[in-house]
């Protein structure tokens, strides 16, 4: 059974780059047909999809975040990573990684000086 675990700093300073890693176990991120996403939920708001990296390595982003988001992967470590640049307090959220069928538990990221 595929499991996902997010990791990264819980506190990021404004204007810096947020970097989170999702470690996948129980399956390969290069498995044909699967897509690996980042989603976030700001406090008191709904879920917001950020983007995905496909099993092929192709990426696709939300138009709202495309200019600041970058998703990459390391198949040797079975991990994929989110980088979000020029963060502001509005980027404070619980960040989740997911496959088509499974989500990680989420990690809180706060943007504050």
Q: Got a strand count?
A: 10
* Overall pLDDT level: 96
Percent helix range: under 10%
Order of helices and strands: EEEEEEEEEE
Low-confidence segments, given as residue ranges, are: none
Shape: globular
Measured between the Cα atoms of the first and last residue, the distance is 39 Å
State the secondary-structure class: mainly beta
How does the major sheet shape up?
A: 6 strands, mixed
- The proportion of residues in beta strands is over 45%
Strand order in the largest sheet: 2-10-9-4-5-6
Number of helices: 0
Backbone CA Rg: 13 Å
List the helices and strands and how they pair.
Layout: E1 3-7, E2 11-12, E3 18-25, E4 35-41, E5 48-54, E6 59-61, E7 69-74, E8 79-84, E9 93-98, E10 107-111
Parallel strand pairs: 2-10
Antiparallel strand pairs: 1-3, 3-8, 4-5, 4-9, 5-6, 7-8, 9-10
Structure description:
The protein is an all-beta fold. Helices cover 0% and strands 49% of the residues. It has strands at residues 3-7, 11-12, 18-25, 35-41, 48-54, 59-61, 69-74, 79-84, 93-98, 107-111. A six-stranded mixed sheet has the order 2-10-9-4-5-6, with no helix packed on it. The protein has a four-stranded antiparallel sheet with strand order 1-3-8-7, with no helix packed on it. Strand 7 and strand 8 form a beta hairpin. It is globular. 27% of the residues are buried.
List keywords for this structure.
mainly beta; 10 strands; single chain; four-stranded antiparallel β-sheet
């Amino acid at each position: 059974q595929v499991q996902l675990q997010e990791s990264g700093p819980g506190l990021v300073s404004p204007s810096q780059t947020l970097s989170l890693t999702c470690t996948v176990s129980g399956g390969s991120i290069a498995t044909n047909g699967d897509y690996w996403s980042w989603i976030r939920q700001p406090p008191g708001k709904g879920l917001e999809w950020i983007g995905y990296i496909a099993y092929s390595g192709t990426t696709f982003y939300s138009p709202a975040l495309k200019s600041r988001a970058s998703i990459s992967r390391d198949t040797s470590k079975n991990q994929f990573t989110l980088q979000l640049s020029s963060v502001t307090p509005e980027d404070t959220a619980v960040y989740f990684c997911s496959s088509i069928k499974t989500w990680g538990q989420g990690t809180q990221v706060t943007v504050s000086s």
